[in-house]
Write a structure and sequence with these properties.
This protein is α/β, with parallel strands linked by helices and about 260 residues long. The strands form two sheets. An eight-stranded parallel β-barrel has the order 1-2-3-4-7-8-9-10, surrounded by five helices. It has a two-stranded antiparallel sheet with strand order 5-6. α2 packs parallel to α4 and α5 packs across α6. The longest helix is centred in the last third of the chain and has 20 residues. The chain starts with a helix and ends in an 8-residue tail after the last helix.
Amino acid sequence: MTSHIDDFRMLHSQAKPLLLGNAWNVQSAQILEKVGFAAVATSSAAIARTLGYQDGEDMPFEDYLFIIKRMKKAIQVPFSVDLEAGYGATPAQVIDNITQLYDLGVVGINLEDTWVADGVRHLQNTGVFVNKLARITEGLAAKNIDMFINVRTDVFLLRMPNALEESLHRIEAYQAHKIDGIFLPFAIHEHDIRIVLEQLRVPLNLLCVHDLPSYENLHQWGVKRISMGSLFNAQAYKSLEKTADEVINAQDFTMLFQ
């Protein structure tokens, strides 16, 4: 009988890309599981907005952990957490956070090479991040904690002019450590994706954005995971706003029962 982390790893080695459903509370996580998503993850941005915080670790980890606990208890499929930059000033603090997630039964994390200050996202020096990553992976191994570590590099997200070259440089450095996947938000061009895939020795995760190629094309090229990010959250509240606007402007609530 396989464990949830074994199941999660197998989902990244199947023929077709894993569609990862990103949720922000118990109800959304349960809906994603109910409709057939094989794994669920948090959207840190959506949870932050739900709690009245800005994205980028503005939300205290204790608040985030409370929501994570409730979500994890409510679903049976493998559950991963968007840990942003780790919610800790030191590798030891990040390891402690991951340990708490592991104790809850979380099987995976995203760890990104940027940080946010005053609403601006900054790219961490490659060497500094590699040192941080090495200390985290070594610390987890010393504690015998098996966690799917999906490393996110934000070079394309920041629209750097040399995004492909810088991504390849970082990917090679990150792969030297015990990681399980690479996440490249806003990589959307076939040329870039194919070149990255040639260098990768771990599964590639892309973010669902407007100009992302089709699922079938990504499958053919070898992409292994596609994350929904905060899109379901945005769609849900867009629908709520539209319905609420109809109720208040029409002074009529009958559409709530249609």
